[in-house]
Specification:
Layout: H1 2-28, E1 33-35, E2 42-47, E3 68-72, E4 74-75, E5 86-93, E6 97-105, E7 118-120, E8 126-128, E9 151-157, E10 183-189, E11 221-222, E12 224-228, E13 233-237, E14 246-248, E15 257-263, E16 268-276, E17 294-302, E18 314-315, E19 319-323, H2 336-341, H3 345-366
Length: 375
């Protein structure tokens, strides 16, 4: 009798371990979405064949084999920030260029506003925002006709982890500086970096050192290429004029190419950035990428129609991104439910079935046998 009970308990334990292993194995594979919970979740930039199609970002065949990573976002400043709850991210590379694809929901629709950032004083007076006042401004003025650009950015940390601050949120009142180290920021804006008919200001006033306007190659959309450290925030290349600090006005300001699209049917932005692994000019200010290397990254989204601009936005925690020479693992397609709930339907179904199997087996193993008649 004792041996029989031990055998039953061993069987139950083995079944539970098997189902637990199955759930963990399914959860850790890339079934369309990787849950970016916990610290330093890694994104992999997979090796692919093909080129970016900036007229239809995200439609390239190589993206079909790469799952999204769902990156939670939070307000950098409340109550004005935090209007975007999460950002979907994936990455690929061809061995020479890296591609980063972003998608996020914007239920109020795209904003191509370019209003000057202002906030309301206690007496109701509207005051232009400046670096000295950002420490105390938690909400900008906006309405249906006065709004700001939609934006998305990826921050690449440039120095050793020992100098990396705990959170990548920009420090208020410090010209956008971060508290430790330095970073290169690829920063797309619906105005002025988007070559869109709704943006009447494109390409936003870049000039060369002599003050003559310069334009991106083939009039393409682009991401502003920025640099930040413990002392300030700067545009790397080109020039906005003498009043704006540019680190190298002779450097090409259009090295990060972008394709972007807003879907009216499902109210989502899709933005695809592409850049060469290495950049020769102003190289000390720009992240230099290499196969097999891992980088610290962070993300931010601004909803311009809801008053987000400057330091007021939705931001992530730190992630790592590894540039791989391996092809993608070809995950199953995602469904809208897995984006909103954060749980893959495949995983939920597998765990549910597994639990049913456990219940059935446990019932069969531990259910008491009917008493034998003594007659």
């Amino acid at each position: 009798m004792l041996r029989t009970r031990r055998s039953r308990r061993s069987t139950v334990a083995l079944v539970l371990l098997a189902v637990l292993w199955l759930a963990i194995a399914i959860g850790s594979s890339r079934f369309g979405i990787v849950e970016a919970q916990g610290t330093l979740v890694n994104l992999t930039s997979y090796r692919v064949s093909g080129a970016a199609n900036h007229t239809a970002p995200g439609s390239e065949a190589f993206w079909n084999g790469i799952g999204w990573t769902d990156v939670p976002l939070a307000a950098s400043v409340s109550p004005g920030g935090g209007h975007t709850s999460d950002l979907l991210v994936k990455s690929a590379n061809d061995g020479f260029k890296i591609f980063v694809l972003f998608r996020w929901n914007d239920s109020v629709g795209p904003s191509f506003g370019s209003s000057t950032e202002v906030y309301a004083a206690p007496n109701g007076t509207l005051i232009p925002l400046n670096p000295a006042t950002t420490a105390n401004v938690t909400q900008l003025f906006y309405n249906s006709t006065y709004d700001y650009p939609d934006r998305v950015a990826v921050l690449w940390f440039l120095q050793t982890p020992a100098t990396r601050q705990q959170s990548p949120v920009m420090v208020l009142g410090s010209n956008g500086a971060i508290t430790g180290g330095a970073a290169n920021i690829w920063h797309w804006q619906s105005v002025p970096t988007d070559n869109n008919a709704n943006d009447t200001l494109f390409p936003g006033g870049y000039t060369d050192p002599s003050g003559s306007p310069i334009f991106p190659h083939n009039n393409e959309s682009f991401a502003e290429d920025d640099f930040t450290n413990t002392t300030g925030f700067y545009t790397i290349g080109g020039s906005f004029g003498a009043a704006t600090p540019n680190l190298d006005p002779y450097a090409d300001p259009y090295v990060v190419h972008v394709g972007n699209y807003f879907s009216d049917s499902n109210k989502t932005w899709t933005v695809e950035m592409a850049r060469s692994f290495t950049i020769s000019d102003a190289s000390r200010y720009r992240v230099q990428l290499a196969t097999g290397s891992t980088y610290y990254v962070a993300f931010a989204v601004w909803n311009g129609a809801l008053g987000e601009s400057s330091h007021i936005k939705s931001v992530s925690q730190w992630y790592t991104l590894t540039v791989s020479d391996q092809p993608p693992p070809s995950p199953l397609p995602i469904t809208p439910a897995s984006v909103t709930t954060g749980i893959s339907p495949t995983l939920a179904a597998a765990v549910g079935i597994g639990l049913l199997v456990v219940g059935a087996i446990i019932g069969a193993v531990v259910r008491p046998r009917p008493k034998e008649s003594k007659v």
